[in-house]
Specification:
With 434 residues, the chain is α/β, with parallel strands linked by helices. It is built from 17 helices and 12 strands. The chain has 2 domains: 147 residues, Periplasmic binding protein-like II (D-Maltodextrin-Binding Protein, domain 2, 3-Layer(aba) Sandwich); 195 residues, Periplasmic binding protein-like II (D-Maltodextrin-Binding Protein, domain 2, 3-Layer(aba) Sandwich). A hairpin with a 4-residue loop joins strand 8 and strand 9. Helix 15 runs antiparallel to helix 17. It comes from Paenibacillus hemerocallicola.
Length: 434
């Protein structure tokens, strides 16, 4: 199945390539252009005439509506044709030849987009439009370039999905335990979790649970899943053992075994971290009286790597875009101070250096008065691991095996589990390569 998908994607990319080749052949007598030569010599004039831009995205939330409103107000000459991934999958889009002018997706979709030929190096456009990439906060540019073995700028992130530690004040009060605080290590969190993990009157209170994806995939130690030089798993290492000993160790606490329990619905989890669920938490607080707060994401003791690796949705421009300059100008505006401030007011963490945006962070969010919302701004981007096209395979195996029942039940030791995870990843990579 994986092989057939790969061949199918290759065919889709060939269709795109042939379409582009046919278009180029109509101008066979012209001088061959280098990448970026199509960019206007006057980028500011790119949107002076009416233009329809095809925008492809997997975001069907209020943020898409905000983008549409901002673009319409800023550029009345632009008509935005929006296609949602939920309505037209990537393979359908490419096969139909309906190539978008620009796209926005979550980082987890990057390799699929690349395999369908919907990603290109944006450096020439950045140069021609005099895009100031120094506005990005530290770690962004290095993280983007880690997705290319040639250091290309294949996408531009537009906000930061910061990680924080949510906690339930009621549980801490119930058991007379001090609240978490900013700047903790995971070792300190372990001690807090130990004090509040228990069964009482038929209720199981979990001290700490975490979403695997954020803390595994973009782990704080900057550990790779696959060696880019050999395309083989890089899991059976002392560094991954350290990670699993610390993070997996939480599930060996009495009464803190892993279960799929909701922090804001069940309200029996003392501490939780993962995706930004502040909107859901605020709603739960209003309807059920959930007494919550947040602190900055804890760190590994003795580690200087910083926060999690970058987790950020991004904009990109496909190589087949008919309006690259116009699309890039729109993207530049969506990364402007004006837009970053507008989104920061509604709780989106700015990914550019903008005191104006950080000062008004979450100002328009209801239900966060008195909360430690500054914690969202303290999660610094950690050093990126080298990224490969096989990371998705490795992540799936890691989630199911390294953090699976053999680990929780202690039927196998950590070294054995990591060795078996590595063997399984290599087997699956080999299947795809055949």
């Amino acid at each position: 199945m994986a092989v057939n998908r790969r061949l199918y994607r290759t065919g889709c990319v060939m269709i795109v390539s042939l379409s582009l080749l046919a278009a180029c052949s109509q101008n066979a007598g012209e001088k061959r252009k280098s990448p970026g030569d199509d960019a206007s010599s006057d980028p500011g004039a790119a949107l002076s005439a009416p233009v329809t831009l095809h925008y492809y995205t997997n975001d069907n939330t209020k943020w898409l509506e905000l983008e549409k409103q901002l673009i319409a107000k800023k550029y009345p000459n632009v008509t935005l044709k929006v296609t949602l991934e939920a309505d037209q999958k990537m393979d359908q889009l490419v096969t139909a030849g309906e190539l978008p002018d620009f796209i926005s997706f979550s980082l987890g979709s990057f390799w699929d987009l690349k395999s369908y030929g919907l990603i290109s190096d944006m450096a020439p456009l950045m140069k021609n439009h005099r895009f100031d990439d120094s506005r990005y906060i530290p770690g962004v540019l290095e993280s983007v370039r880690s997705y290319s073995d040639r250091g290309e700028m294949l996408f531009l992130p537009f906000e930061l999905n910061s990680n924080v530690l949510f906690y339930n004040k009621t549980i801490f009060d119930k058991f007379g335990v001090s609240y978490p605080r900013d700047g903790m290590t995971w070792e300190v969190v372990y001690e807090l979790a130990r004090k509040v993990s228990r069964k009482e009157n038929g209720t199981e209170y979990k001290g700490f649970l975490f979403q695997h994806q954020n803390l595994v995939w973009k782990n704080q130690l900057g550990l790779p899943f696959v060696d880019p030089k050999t395309n083989k798993a890089a899991i059976h290492t002392a560094e991954w053992k350290k990670w699993l000993d610390v993070m997996g160790g939480f599930y060996f606490l009495p009464d803190n075994d892993y279960k799929n329990v909701s922090f804001y619905k069940d309200q029996t989890v003392a501490m939780w971290t993962g995706a930004n669920i502040v909107s859901s938490v605020v709603e739960a607080s209003a309807s059920t009286g959930l007494n919550w707060d947040v602190v900055s994401l804890p760190q590994f003791g003795g580690s200087a790597n910083g926060g999690t690796q970058m987790i950020a949705p991004f904009y990109a421009i496909p190589p087949g875009s008919k309006h690259k300059d116009e699309a890039f100008q729109v993207i530049s505006y969506l990364l402007s101070e004006e837009v970053q401030v507008a989104k920061a007011r509604q709780g989106k963490v700015p990914i550019v250096n903008s005191p104006a945006a950080t000062q008004v962070f979450a100002a328009d969010l209801k239900g966060v008065s008195g909360k430690n919302m500054g914690a969202f701004l303290k999660d610094k981007i950690g050093k990126p691991a080298v990224v490969t096209q096989y990371d998705g395979i490795a992540k799936d195996v890691f989630y199911k095996t390294a953090l699976g029942k053999d680990f929780y039940s202690r039927t196998k030791d950590v070294n054995t589990i990591l060795r078996e995870v590595e063997e399984e990843i290599n087997r699956k990579i080999k299947e795809v390569q055949q």
